[in-house]
């Protein structure tokens, strides 16, 4: 009976919050108009010509747009060089500022990643030793575009200190309590507004009030992915618990884990294996496409492209 009520609540929630699965052509052309108005005419024209062929297959992206002077100096860039300036993740300024020097960011050019080169004393983020605009030129929450003075070099070699590696995670699954929590309320509202209503409902009914000092991390599949994976209603609690880790891990923490690191979850015996595919962070074969959807002192939430299953 309880499972049936929970599923009914999920259905009602889905009815009020639209699903978000891919960037729209309208958003891409709106972004091109904003780029042109901001003095990035060459990249605006480029975006209109090439971006729709692969951006419309991605639910989110960040673009680093070279200036018009960069296009004049370099001539027409190759398609691969342009793809190197596209990241299959939405990276707002608050997320970029969390990266330490040496952190790697995957790009849409297979096998190639950008490197964060911002030091603790820098006010403006730099990528591959090239500063980007402090604020996005365009930002609708899913597509973000920053400006750069030059093209980013795919052959850039980082020579600074590497970020600390966490190859022995200290996360340990613990019991949780069901007290009210402002941290959860904020996370739930953010998830609902972003197309992750199923995970929001689970947080509100099943995990509200986690009280461990280390907090939690939620890997949230979009609503349509949840609906595709739900079978027996009695399995719902287990389905969701395998997406929750008993410590708070921001994106900057995740990218610093070694390949084959494992994270425990609230589902006993179910672990999340961290690997990389062409520079993209992968959890049990599923890509992280929306890092740091939400985070505060207790909760971190990251969007994943599908439901997590045992490997």
TrEMBL record:
The keyword Signal applies. It comes from the Eukaryota. Residues 28-156, 168-308 form the FAS1 domain. Keywords: Signal. The keyword Signal applies. Residues 1-22 form the signal peptide. Coiled coil: none annotated. Belongs to the fasciclin-like AGP family. This is FAS1 domain-containing protein. It comes from Lupinus angustifolius (Narrow-leaved blue lupine).
């Amino acid at each position: 009976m309880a499972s049936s009520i929970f599923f009914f609540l999920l259905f009602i929630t889905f009815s009020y919050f639209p699903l978000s699965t891919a960037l729209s052509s309208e958003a891409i052309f709106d972004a091109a108009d904003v780029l042109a108005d901001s003095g990035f005419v060459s990249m605006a024209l480029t975006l209109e010509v090439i971006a729709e062929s692969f951006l419309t297959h991605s639910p989110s992206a960040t673009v680093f747009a070279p200036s018009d002077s960069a296009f004049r100096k370099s001539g027409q860039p190759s398609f691969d060089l342009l793809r190197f300036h596209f990241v299959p993740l939405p990276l707002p300024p608050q997320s970029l500022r969390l990266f330490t020097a040496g952190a790697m960011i995957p790009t849409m050019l297979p096998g190639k990643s950008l490197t964060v080169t911002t030091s603790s004393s820098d006010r403006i983020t730099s990528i591959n030793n090239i500063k980007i605009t402090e604020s996005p030129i365009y930002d609708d929450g899913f597509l973000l575009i920053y400006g750069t003075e030059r093209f980013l070099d795919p052959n850039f070699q980082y020579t600074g200190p590497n970020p600390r590696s966490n190859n022995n995670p200290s996360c340990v699954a613990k019991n949780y309590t069901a007290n009210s929590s402002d941290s959860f309320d904020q996370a739930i509202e953010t998830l609902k507004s972003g197309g992750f209503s199923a995970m929001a409902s689970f947080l509100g009914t099943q995990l509200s009030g986690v009280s461990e000092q280390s907090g939690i991390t939620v890997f949230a599949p979009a609503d349509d992915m949840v609906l595709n994976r739900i079978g027996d209603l009695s399995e719902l609690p287990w389905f969701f618990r395998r997406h929750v880790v008993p410590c708070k891990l921001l994106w900057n923490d995740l990218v610093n884990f070694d390949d084959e690191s494992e994270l425990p979850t609230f589902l006993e015996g179910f672990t999340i294996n961290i690997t990389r595919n062409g520079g993209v962070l992968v959890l049990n074969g599923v890509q992280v496409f929306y890092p740091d959807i939400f985070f505060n002192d207790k909760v971190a939430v990251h969007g994943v492209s599908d439901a997590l299953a045992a490997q």
